[in-house]
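Entry 14. Ran structure prediction on the chain below.
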Amino acid sequence: MDNLSAGEKVHLEILRRKYLQLLPIDITKIPSDVLEVSEDLITRLSHLIALPSVSEAIAAQRKSYVTYTLSSSLSEPKPEEIVLMESRALISSSGSTGLRTWEAALHLGTYLLTDQGNALVKGKHVLELGAGTGFLSILCAKYLQTASVRATDGDEAVVDDLRHNIAMNELPDEAKIQSGVLRWGRTSVDQLDESLGVVLGADITYDTSIIPSLVATLVELFDGSPELVVIFSATIRNETTFETFLSACSAFLHWTEVVIEAR
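Output, structure tokens:
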């Protein structure tokens, strides 16, 4: 340290003391002549502290692991938790909204964890549209005793993360849950199992420009499975947008609106 200026020596001494405060020991009980910290370590610590902080916008794009603890009235199996890798950003840098779990998915999941909701999916072959992080698909496959689940999204990058989330929740069995790209109005659904019983969707009616394609896919699904039950959950951010979806459905499908109070 002899080649350092007086100011640099003071700075390093401050860093040394801060470093020692982070140690999981009581430094007051150690003789001062023993408290030697590597000069190289202090220099590196100084470099890290000097790095510019990451902006909130960039930080929001970074992915992290989120654990959702489930509350259910079901007796068996007793749901515990779902762990997902997701982003805090509402919209990713690529323009996707599928990298985070949205409120409507959580509310629909809460409903499916009731006896009434579980009866709709138990033992059924389930397809999720716009699955995003896969919260609902993983919930169905892991805890709701569905016959099978196919989680789909129109964004390949989202589907890649979805596969990671499925594996992370210990659901590697492809007979139980599968994932894939399905672009509404453009991808044929002929390859789907004719025994498909339930279609799920959460927060996928937020944009009027995609509603015609979404409804076209629903009509095609009903053509293959006339007894199909479709359950959509939506957060009403814009009344006009939601009315556009309902009007489009009315032209081709019979539907019932159910208001579920948030718990």
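The mean pLDDT is 79. Will compare against last week's run tomorrow.
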